[in-house]
Write a structure and sequence with these properties.
Shape: elongated
Low-confidence stretches: none
Order of helices and strands: HHHHHHHHEHEEE
Number of domains: 2
Strand content: 5-15%
Largest sheet: 4 strands, mixed
Number of strands: 4
Mean pLDDT: 78
Radius of gyration: 26 Å
């Protein structure tokens, strides 16, 4: 998919750089993109076929994503969801996959798009429509098409849509090729502002991740110390912990979790006991999951003994 997206981006830059004298080469560019698309489809179908053969010969599941493919109504439902997730990548209020500079970046991107289309329109209507079609295809493909083939498309991931981060550089390079050597300072200013905005939001994210880690370590230390200090809990060997989202108050002052991004490590059952052991040295074996009453407070937690084990709620 990355190769196909890069082929579209290459077609945009090459077509704009060619200029008016080479504008008729659009057919050749379409042929190149079609060849990459064919390679992408053939490779995907071949991979699915090989996994099906593997399952038939060994009886083992080749992988959740390969075995959990969409069909019929689910595929049509995925097609209906795709535009929403594409727009979510460039929403001015912030990406649905995580925080970014939002409105200002979208505004700068619109300026670059207008520059590119204005330069193309000076040549012909067809040239401007062709450039617009290629840019639209890049945006549509920024949300990985592979999700259309999965039943779990309702939960796309940012790592499979990283192409959206390259959308702005492609627009900037296309604008540079369209108006050089005019407005060079304007384009350099746009690049500097966009870089500064993204740098600030990245710095904010890193600072919040460190703060979330501090809160996780503090809660794990409090739980471990409470187990070690309480004489009624002496000799326990197992522990039961809740498997659910942390209360909203736990994230007070932080950007709320988005899908799997920015969540407390204590929300994951496989990490709860290891972090308690790492922070406090208390070694226990996880024996199960406990159902705890809903709470909107992050401070208090309860600990009780259940036979030879300890039950923790937070």
């Amino acid at each position: 998919m990355a190769l196909f997206w890069l082929a579209l981006a290459w077609a945009v830059i090459t077509y704009i750089e060619a200029g008016e004298a080479e504008a008729r080469k659009h057919v050749r560019l379409i042929g190149h993109v079609a060849a990459v698309a064919t390679l992408f489809v053939v490779a995907g179908l071949g991979y699915i076929a090989l996994t099906r053969v593997f399952v038939a010969l060994t009886g083992k599941v080749a992988g959740e994503r390969v075995s959990d493919t969409a069909y019929g109504n689910i595929l049509l439902e995925n097609l209906r969801h795709h535009p929403k997730y594409v727009l979510g990548l460039v929403a001015p209020s912030g990406s649905m996959y995580g925080p970014y500079a939002g409105g200002p970046i979208v505004f700068l991107g619109v300026i670059l798009l207008c520059i590119v289309l204005r330069a193309a329109l000076k040549t012909s209507w067809f040239r401007s429509l062709f450039v617009l079609a290629l840019l639209a295809a890049i945006l549509i493909c920024a949300q990985n098409f592979e999700h259309l083939l999965l039943r779990s498309y309702h939960w796309p991931t940012g790592r499979s849509s990283f192409y959206a981060g390259l959308q702005f550089p492609v627009l900037w390079l296309a604008a540079w090729l369209s108006i050089r050597p005019r407005w060079v300072r304007t384009l350099l200013l746009i690049a500097a502002v966009a870089t500064a905005l993204q740098t600030m939001i990245f710095a904010k994210i890193i600072a919040e991740r460190f703060e979330l880690q501090r809160r996780d370590f503090a809660l794990a230390k409090d739980i471990g110390d409470a187990i070690r200090r309480d004489p009624l809990l002496a000799g326990v060997t197992g522990i039961s912990l809740p498997y659910r989202e942390m209360p909203a108050s736990y994230y007070r002052g932080l950007i709320r979790p988005i899908f799997d991004s920015g969540r407390s490590i204590l929300e994951y059952d496989f990490a709860q006991v290891p972090i308690i052991t790492f922070v406090t040295g208390v070694e226990l074996v996880r024996i199960g999951t406990v159902s705890c009453p809903p709470s909107d407070e992050s401070g208090p937690f309860t600990i009780r003994r259940d036979g030879g084990n300890v039950v923790v709620c937070f």
